[in-house]
Amino acid sequence: MDLNKFENQVFFTTVRITIPNDDLRTSSVGTGFLVNVPLRKEGLTGVFLVSNKHVYGDSRRTIVLNFHKKRTDVDSPDLGSTAPAVIADFSAHYYEHPNPDIDLACINVSAFTGEENGVYSRNLHDEFFNHTDYSRILPGADISFIGYPDNRFDAIHNLPILRKGYLAINSCTNIRSAYYFP
């Protein structure tokens, strides 16, 4: 796998999110995407895990973030291994989209990522979104999406699955506003 190509790096922008249910035997699973976000202090960036509000649920519950583990000898992933971060209450790091009709939220995960934590990741940058021509995102457009739907993933390599499809009509409504975080 050539990790210099974006189409391969995108597998490492994802994190499998696991939230144990009250019975502690079952759990909810979702996908988060790592995004570098400029912070208010000039020149500093934070790493935020963007997902859906319904995936995160109650921010006072325990959450497990299944990061990709970094190999110790080279700058590459240790395929098949995870570097889990268990957070008992993530409410201090949790931010919901200000519009209640937009199902997006994020967690500041800066303290849990990076080489010092044994995590291998690639983060999306704001430039990725700034170059999107939203007028070209039309119903019926070919799309690819990546993630851990219904806890389906390549368990041998700890990688999300990549699927292709077509954009539905309702998906295009206010797509630009969905990417706004203050």
Helical residue percent band? under 10%
Q: Number of helix segments?
A: 3
What's the rounded overall pLDDT mean? 82
What is the N-to-C succession of helices and strands?
Answer: HEEEHEEEEEHEE
CATH-defined superfamily of the domain at 6-125:
Trypsin-like serine proteases
Looking at the overall shape, the CATH architecture of the domain at 6-125 is Beta Barrel
Determine the structural class based on helices, strands and strand pairing.
Answer: mainly beta
Distance between the termini: 36 Å
CATH topology group of the domain at 6-125:
Thrombin, subunit H
Number of strands: 10
Rg is 16 Å
Beta content comes to 35-45%
Regarding CATH, which class of the domain at 6-125?
Mainly Beta
For the report, how would you describe the main beta sheet? Answer: 8 strands, antiparallel
Gist?
The longest helix is centred in the C-terminal third of the chain and has 5 residues.
Q: What labels describe this entry?
A:
182 residues; mainly beta; Thrombin, subunit H; eight-stranded antiparallel beta sheet; two-stranded antiparallel ribbon; 3 helices; 10 strands; 7% helix; globular; disordered C terminus
